[in-house]
Design brief:
By secondary structure, the chain is α+β, with helices and mostly antiparallel strands. It is built from 9 helices and 6 strands. The strands form 2 sheets. It has a 4-stranded antiparallel β-sheet with strand order 1-4-3-2. A two-stranded antiparallel sheet has the order 5-6. Strand 5 and strand 6 form a beta hairpin. Helix 7 crosses helix 8.
Length: about 200
C-alpha cells in the first residue's frame, strides 16, 4: 500500500487518519505495520464503502480538499471495491537505528552472516547476497537497472531482494539508487577480514 509523500507527512503529524483505496481485494490487514519513508504506519479498521457513504469530512481526513478530489484519485482504477482504512503513525522505522550500527559483536556478525547464507541457500539464483552488496558498495547510488546489468540479475527480482538486505539494515534506498549503510560497510569489511 503506497502513499504520496504529502500524505505520509500528514499521517505522521496526525492530520490524516484515513485512506481510501479501490481494490479488487484488500491488500493489507488490520493491525499490520507498513514500512514507509516517515516510519512505521499502523493499519486500523478496514471497511468496504460506496461512493455515497464517503463524506467531505472523511475526504479531508484522508488528505484531500473534498470528496470530489478523493474520487478523482480512483480514475486509474475504475473497477473494484472502495475501502475506507484507518491509518496512524506507529513509530520510527527500526531499520534506521539498525543500519546506523557500526559495531558488531562476533555473535551479531555470525547471526547476520547466517541470515545472508539462508537467503542464498533458499534462492533459485544461488549465492547472490555478497555479489549484490559488493556491487552496491562499488557503485553507490546506482539504480536497479544499472545493478541488474552489472550482476546479470533481473531488475524486478533484484529490487525485491535488495529490500531484504534493507530489512537487515545493510542497504539504504535513495530516490535514485542504493548505497551500503554504515552497518553494511562494517559487515563487508568484517567479511573481507575472514577471507
Amino acid at each position: 500500500m503506497l502513499f504520496k509523500g504529502v500524505h505520509l507527512q500528514g499521517i505522521k503529524s496526525g492530520e490524516i487518519t484515513l485512506a481510501f483505496r479501490k481494490w479488487q481485494k484488500v491488500s493489507v490487514k488490520t493491525g499490520s505495520l507498513l514500512h514507509t519513508s516517515v516510519g512505521l504506519l499502523e493499519i486500523g479498521k478496514i471497511e468496504a464503502v460506496s461512493e455515497n457513504d464517503i463524506s467531505d469530512k472523511e475526504a479531508v481526513q484522508a488528505g484531500f480538499t473534498e470528496k470530489k478530489q478523493l474520487l478523482k484519485s480512483f480514475t486509474h482504477n475504475s473497477t473494484g471495491t472502495i475501502f475506507k482504512i484507518s491509518v496512524r503513525y506507529h513509530a520510527e522505522d527500526p531499520r534506521i537505528k539498525l543500519r546506523e550500527q557500526t559495531g558488531l559483536s562476533e555473535q551479531q556478525f555470525e547471526e547476520l552472516k547466517g541470515r545472508l547464507e539462508r537467503l542464498d541457500l533458499y534462492s533459485k539464483q544461488g549465492h547472490w547476497t555478497e555479489k549484490i552488496l559488493l556491487t552496491i558498495k562499488d557503485n553507490p547510488n546506482l539504480h536497479a537497472i544499472g545493478i541488474a546489468k552489472l550482476t546479470g540479475f533481473e531488475k524486478e527480482w533484484l529490487k525485491l531482494n535488495i529490500r531484504k538486505l534493507k530489512n537487515l539494515g545493510l542497504t539504504i534506498s535513495h530516490n535514485v539508487g542504493y548505497r551500503l549503510s554504515p552497518l553494511g560497510e562494517h559487515f563487508i569489511e568484517e567479511l573481507k577480514g575472514e577471507q
